[in-house]
Protein backbone atom coordinates (compact mmCIF):
# COMPACT_ATOMS: atom_id res chain seq x y z
CA UNK A 1 0.00 0.00 0.00
CA UNK A 2 2.76 2.45 0.91
CA UNK A 3 4.53 1.61 -2.37
CA UNK A 4 1.41 2.53 -4.30
CA UNK A 5 1.01 5.82 -2.39
CA UNK A 6 4.68 6.62 -3.01
CA UNK A 7 4.28 5.88 -6.72
CA UNK A 8 1.12 7.99 -6.88
CA UNK A 9 2.87 10.96 -5.25
CA UNK A 10 5.81 10.57 -7.64
CA UNK A 11 3.47 10.43 -10.65
CA UNK A 12 1.52 13.50 -9.51
CA UNK A 13 4.78 15.44 -9.08
CA UNK A 14 5.94 14.35 -12.54
CA UNK A 15 2.55 15.25 -14.02
CA UNK A 16 2.82 18.64 -12.33
CA UNK A 17 6.29 19.15 -13.82
CA UNK A 18 5.12 18.12 -17.30
CA UNK A 19 2.05 20.33 -17.11
CA UNK A 20 4.11 23.43 -16.29
CA UNK A 21 4.74 24.19 -19.97
CA UNK A 22 1.00 23.96 -20.67
CA UNK A 23 0.41 26.22 -17.66
CA UNK A 24 3.00 28.79 -18.73
CA UNK A 25 1.86 28.87 -22.37
CA UNK A 26 -1.73 29.00 -21.10
CA UNK A 27 -0.80 32.09 -19.10
CA UNK A 28 0.25 33.83 -22.29
CA UNK A 29 -2.77 32.65 -24.24
CA UNK A 30 -5.08 33.58 -21.40
CA UNK A 31 -4.17 37.23 -21.94
CA UNK A 32 -6.21 37.05 -25.13
CA UNK A 33 -9.88 37.37 -24.38
CA UNK A 34 -10.95 33.76 -24.67
CA UNK A 35 -14.49 32.76 -23.72
CA UNK A 36 -14.85 30.21 -20.91
CA UNK A 37 -16.12 27.60 -23.37
CA UNK A 38 -12.90 27.91 -25.41
CA UNK A 39 -10.81 27.69 -22.22
CA UNK A 40 -12.70 24.51 -21.27
CA UNK A 41 -12.07 22.96 -24.73
CA UNK A 42 -8.38 23.90 -24.74
CA UNK A 43 -7.90 22.29 -21.31
CA UNK A 44 -9.63 19.07 -22.35
CA UNK A 45 -7.66 18.85 -25.60
CA UNK A 46 -4.33 19.29 -23.84
CA UNK A 47 -5.40 16.80 -21.16
CA UNK A 48 -6.19 14.20 -23.83
CA UNK A 49 -2.80 14.75 -25.46
CA UNK A 50 -1.19 14.29 -22.03
CA UNK A 51 -2.95 10.90 -21.89
CA UNK A 52 -2.07 9.64 -25.38
CA UNK A 53 1.53 10.79 -25.56
CA UNK A 54 2.69 9.12 -22.32
CA UNK A 55 0.62 6.04 -23.19
CA UNK A 56 2.55 5.68 -26.44
CA UNK A 57 5.77 6.29 -24.52
CA UNK A 58 4.85 3.71 -21.87
CA UNK A 59 4.18 1.05 -24.47
CA UNK A 60 7.49 1.75 -26.20
CA UNK A 61 9.28 1.87 -22.84
CA UNK A 62 7.90 -1.49 -21.70
CA UNK A 63 9.05 -3.03 -24.98
CA UNK A 64 12.54 -1.54 -24.56
CA UNK A 65 12.69 -2.62 -20.92
CA UNK A 66 11.95 -6.22 -21.83
CA UNK A 67 14.59 -6.19 -24.56
CA UNK A 68 17.35 -4.06 -23.02
CA UNK A 69 16.83 -4.06 -19.20
CA UNK A 70 19.40 -1.95 -17.29
CA UNK A 71 20.57 -0.12 -20.41
CA UNK A 72 17.00 1.07 -21.00
CA UNK A 73 16.81 2.40 -17.42
CA UNK A 74 19.99 4.41 -18.00
CA UNK A 75 18.51 5.85 -21.19
CA UNK A 76 15.26 6.71 -19.37
CA UNK A 77 17.08 8.56 -16.58
CA UNK A 78 19.19 10.37 -19.14
CA UNK A 79 16.08 11.42 -21.06
CA UNK A 80 14.53 12.92 -17.91
CA UNK A 81 17.72 14.82 -17.14
CA UNK A 82 17.96 16.15 -20.71
CA UNK A 83 14.30 17.15 -20.71
CA UNK A 84 14.66 18.92 -17.36
CA UNK A 85 17.77 20.79 -18.48
CA UNK A 86 16.07 21.75 -21.76
CA UNK A 87 13.06 23.17 -19.90
CA UNK A 88 15.31 25.19 -17.58
CA UNK A 89 17.47 26.36 -20.50
CA UNK A 90 14.44 27.49 -22.51
CA UNK A 91 13.44 29.85 -19.69
CA UNK A 92 16.79 31.62 -20.04
CA UNK A 93 16.24 32.42 -23.73
CA UNK A 94 15.20 35.99 -24.38
CA UNK A 95 13.43 35.27 -27.69
CA UNK A 96 9.71 35.72 -27.90
CA UNK A 97 7.92 32.57 -29.01
CA UNK A 98 5.28 32.85 -31.69
CA UNK A 99 1.84 32.31 -30.25
CA UNK A 100 -0.22 29.58 -31.86
CA UNK A 101 -3.90 30.40 -32.17
CA UNK A 102 -5.82 27.84 -30.08
CA UNK A 103 -8.42 27.05 -32.75
CA UNK A 104 -8.75 23.98 -35.00
CA UNK A 105 -5.37 22.80 -36.31
CA UNK A 106 -3.62 25.45 -34.20
CA UNK A 107 -5.13 23.93 -31.06
CA UNK A 108 -3.94 20.44 -32.05
CA UNK A 109 -0.46 21.79 -32.78
CA UNK A 110 -0.45 23.66 -29.47
CA UNK A 111 -1.57 20.53 -27.56
CA UNK A 112 1.05 18.40 -29.31
CA UNK A 113 3.83 20.91 -28.62
CA UNK A 114 3.13 21.07 -24.89
CA UNK A 115 2.68 17.30 -24.55
CA UNK A 116 5.66 15.98 -26.53
CA UNK A 117 7.79 15.89 -23.40
CA UNK A 118 5.24 13.57 -21.79
CA UNK A 119 6.08 10.97 -24.47
CA UNK A 120 9.70 10.91 -23.28
CA UNK A 121 8.64 10.68 -19.65
CA UNK A 122 6.16 7.93 -20.58
CA UNK A 123 9.02 6.09 -22.27
CA UNK A 124 11.05 6.36 -19.08
CA UNK A 125 8.13 5.25 -16.90
CA UNK A 126 7.50 2.29 -19.21
CA UNK A 127 11.12 1.24 -18.80
CA UNK A 128 10.81 1.70 -15.04
CA UNK A 129 7.62 -0.41 -14.96
CA UNK A 130 5.10 2.18 -13.78
CA UNK A 131 1.40 1.31 -13.71
CA UNK A 132 -0.07 2.49 -17.00
CA UNK A 133 -3.52 3.48 -15.73
CA UNK A 134 -2.10 5.55 -12.87
CA UNK A 135 0.29 7.35 -15.22
CA UNK A 136 -2.26 8.37 -17.84
CA UNK A 137 -4.87 9.29 -15.23
CA UNK A 138 -2.45 11.52 -13.29
CA UNK A 139 -0.93 13.10 -16.40
CA UNK A 140 -4.30 13.78 -18.05
CA UNK A 141 -6.03 15.26 -15.01
CA UNK A 142 -3.10 17.38 -13.87
CA UNK A 143 -2.39 18.74 -17.39
CA UNK A 144 -6.05 19.65 -17.88
CA UNK A 145 -6.29 21.46 -14.54
CA UNK A 146 -2.96 23.25 -15.05
CA UNK A 147 -4.00 24.40 -18.51
CA UNK A 148 -7.29 25.75 -17.19
CA UNK A 149 -5.45 27.47 -14.34
CA UNK A 150 -2.94 29.04 -16.73
CA UNK A 151 -5.61 30.27 -19.10
CA UNK A 152 -7.74 31.70 -16.31
CA UNK A 153 -4.82 33.28 -14.49
CA UNK A 154 -3.55 34.68 -17.78
CA UNK A 155 -6.57 36.96 -17.80
CA UNK A 156 -5.37 38.53 -14.55
CA UNK A 157 -1.58 38.07 -14.39
CA UNK A 158 1.22 39.39 -16.58
CA UNK A 159 3.63 36.98 -18.34
CA UNK A 160 6.38 37.10 -15.65
CA UNK A 161 5.15 33.96 -13.89
CA UNK A 162 5.35 31.76 -17.01
CA UNK A 163 9.11 31.38 -17.23
CA UNK A 164 9.47 30.63 -13.53
CA UNK A 165 6.85 27.87 -13.69
CA UNK A 166 8.59 26.18 -16.63
CA UNK A 167 11.94 26.35 -14.79
CA UNK A 168 10.33 24.70 -11.75
CA UNK A 169 8.94 21.92 -13.94
CA UNK A 170 12.39 21.39 -15.48
CA UNK A 171 14.00 21.18 -12.03
CA UNK A 172 11.49 18.52 -10.94
CA UNK A 173 12.16 16.38 -14.04
CA UNK A 174 15.91 16.82 -13.59
CA UNK A 175 15.63 15.62 -9.99
CA UNK A 176 13.66 12.52 -10.99
CA UNK A 177 16.18 11.73 -13.73
CA UNK A 178 19.00 11.94 -11.21
CA UNK A 179 17.02 9.76 -8.80
CA UNK A 180 16.64 7.07 -11.48
CA UNK A 181 20.38 7.07 -12.13
CA UNK A 182 21.58 7.04 -8.49
CA UNK A 183 21.64 3.22 -8.20
CA UNK A 184 24.27 3.19 -10.97
CA UNK A 185 26.71 5.48 -9.14
UniProtKB/TrEMBL annotation:
HAMAP family: MntP_pump. The keyword Nucleotide-binding does not apply. One of its GO terms (molecular function) is manganese ion transmembrane transporter activity. It comes from Neobacillus cucumis. PANTHER family: MANGANESE EFFLUX PUMP MNTP-RELATED. The chain crosses the membrane at residues 12-32, 39-59, 71-91, 103-127, 133-154, 161-181. It is a multi-pass membrane protein. Belongs to the MntP (TC 9.B.29) family. Probably functions as a manganese efflux pump. This is Putative manganese efflux pump MntP. The keyword Cell membrane applies. One of its GO terms (cellular component) is plasma membrane. It is found in: Cell membrane. InterPro entries: Mntp/YtaF, Put_MntP. Keywords: Cell membrane, Ion transport, Manganese, Membrane, Transmembrane, Transmembrane helix, Transport. It comes from the Bacteria.
Amino acid sequence: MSDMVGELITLILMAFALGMDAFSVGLGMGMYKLPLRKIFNIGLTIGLFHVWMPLLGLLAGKFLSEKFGTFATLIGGGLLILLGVQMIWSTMKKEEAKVITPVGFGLLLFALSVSLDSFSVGLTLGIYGAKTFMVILCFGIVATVQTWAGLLLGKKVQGWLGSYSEALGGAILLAFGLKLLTPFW
